[in-house]
Amino acid sequence: MGKEFGDRLAELLKSKGITQKKLAEKAGVTEAAMSHYIKGDRVPRTAVLARIAENLETTSEYLMNGTTDGAEDVGQVVRLIARNAAYMSKEDKMKIIGILMGEE
To answer: What does the H/E/C string look like for 19-88?
Structure first.
């Protein structure tokens, strides 16, 4: 599993234009630890994995297994709404609530 994880991690770093050093800083690990993750020598702990996924705008599920089951997509949607709630109109907020309640 480690090498596949490392391959996906390296691919995302390249596609996002993020350096290994910058991701390590944002994930709260050393650059050496990040290097081990990319090589496939180690797999990060859950909290670190979540920070890596968030900074690469992906899911832990994708990084670990190469798949997404949709469950972590909910977390991304929640974060997106939370970041933008202050800029949303009351009507927009009510529309989201309606969607969640199955009214639309």
So the answer is: CHHHHHHHHCCCHHHHHHHHHCCCCCCHHHHHHHHHHCCCCHHHHHHCCCCCHHHHHHHHHHHHHHHHHC
Query: Which tens digits make up the pLDDT trace of 63-93?
Result: 988 876 655 567 767 777 888 889 989 999 9
Could you give the dihedral angle defined by the CA atoms of residues 39, 43, 46 and 49, in that order, rounded to the nearest 10 degrees?
Answer: 10
Instruction: Output the pTM of the full model.
Output: 0.64
What pLDDT, in 10s, does the model give residues 1-42? 557 999 999 999 999 999 999 999 999 999 999 999 999 889
- Residues with Cβ within 8 Å of 44's Cβ and at least 6 positions away in sequence, in order, are 27, 29, 33, 37, 52
- Which phi and psi angles does 55 have, rounded to 5°? -70, -20
Element (H, E) at 102: none
